[in-house]
Specification:
6 helices, Uridine Diphospho-n-acetylenolpyruvylglucosamine Reductase, domain 1, 5-stranded antiparallel β-sheet, Uridine Diphospho-n-acetylenolpyruvylglucosamine Reductase, domain 3, Uridine Diphospho-n-acetylenolpyruvylglucosamine Reductase, domain 2, 305 residues, 4-stranded mixed β-sheet, 24% strand, globular, binds flavin-adenine dinucleotide, 3 domains, alpha+beta
Length: 305
């Protein structure tokens, strides 16, 4: 990896940080440069520094939808999980949240404030920024239905934040235009339905969480569903139908509990997970002629699946 000039100390930059510690799959090699900013101004300064050094920069949230190469990542990786905080208005239903705010705790706070619309989000272990990028969703709900707008910055002009409305984000199933543009989400504005019974919302939220934890392998490192559902089929059913539950390569295993999850049973590498993904795709294509596309974002891996 190439080396850049020593950075200014206040940016909190570190070298060679193991990204396995920042992904829920617990795999991923070292980041050439790594930082966890404490505020938006520091995030903007980090992007400015990377730009001045000619380094690629990327922002990650909770790393719950990432497959990061064992070789690690060149350039600057910024984890924004410290950029938390949200203001909820119980009468208008308006929520302003920082991108690093965990979406499950936002869902619980909204329920306690009598705001309905995020009950589905309680079991998704990501951040507000990641939810906006991925159009995260579950149990019939999704981000696109409740998000009004995001404030973003372009790493080429980090000092000029601007807003993008819901309509301009081109939301679709697990998709937004943010997946194809190098924009960094700073904050998100949600509009929920006010005036609901907090006790009933909290009950519904807890029931949603329970139904997920009892049918999905939440105790093992994973990235949730690996494949997008090839409508009208369910990826998990296709995989299970071929008897692939339990199939493993090294420490990577098709979960015996939910076939659309690949779990790290201990010591898995990104390469093993990647090969298992390819093997599942090959078998489903061979048996059904259906191409499974990954929902997880691959960073630093050469082939595309
Ligand atoms: C056990 C488990 C269950 C899951 N269940 C679901 C589910 O039911 N539904 C669902 O939709 N997903 C699910 N997921 C996947 C994942 O939690 C979601 O995709 C989540 O929205 C990702 O958020 P994150 O903060 O972890 O993003 P990351 O994984 O860190 O990043 C995902 C992408 O977003 C980008 N990104 C993140 N933050 C920013 C930002 N601030 N600005 C710009 N780009 C950014 C990253 O660069 C990357 O391209 C599950 C994952 C696990 C581990």
């Amino acid at each position: 990896m190439s080396s850049a000039a020593p950075p200014p100390a206040p940016l909190g930059l570190r070298r060679g940080v193991a990204l396995a510690d920042y992904t829920t799959w617990r795999v991923g090699g070292p980041a050439q440069w790594f930082a966890e900013p404490d505020c938006s101004a520091q995030l903007q300064a980090l992007l400015q520094w990377a730009r001045a050094e000619g380094l690629a920069a990327r922002v990650i949230g909770a790393g719950s939808n990432l497959l990061v190469s064992d070789a690690g990542l060149e350039g600057l990786t910024i984890c924004n999980r410290h950029l938390q905080g949200a203001a909820l208005d119980g009468s208008s239903g308006l929520i302003e949240a920082h991108a690093g705010e965990p979406i499950p705790s936002l869902a619980r706070r909204a329920a306690r404030a009598g705001l309905s619309g995020l009950e589905w989000a309680v079991g998704i272990p990501g951040t507000v920024g990641g939810a906006a990028v991925m159009n995260a969703g579950a149990q019939g709900g999704c981000t696109a239905e409740v998000l009004e707008s995001v404030t973003v910055i372009d790493p080429q002009r980090p000092d000029q934040p601007f807003q993008i409305s819901n309509q301009e984000l081109n939301f679709a199933y697990r998709h937004s235009r943010l997946q194809h543009e190098e924009l960094v989400v700073l904050t998100a504005r949600f509009r929920l339905e006010a005036g609901h019974d907090p006790a009933e919302l909290s009950r519904r939220t807890s029931a949603n969480l329970h139904s997920r934890t009892s049918t999905q392998p939440y105790q093992q490192p994973s990235c949730g569903s690996v494949f997008r559902n090839p409508e009208p089929h369910k990826a998990g059913q296709l995989i299970e139908g071929l008897g692939l539950k339990g199939l493993n390569i090294g420490g990577a295993q098709v979960s015996p509990i939910h076939a659309n999850f690949i779990v790290n049973t201990g010591g898995a590498t990104a390469s093993e997970i990647d090969h298992l993904i390819a093997q599942v795709q090959q078998q489903v294509r061979g048996a059904h002629g259906i191409s499974l596309h990954t929902e997880v974002k691959r960073l630093g891996l050469s082939s595309t699946t």
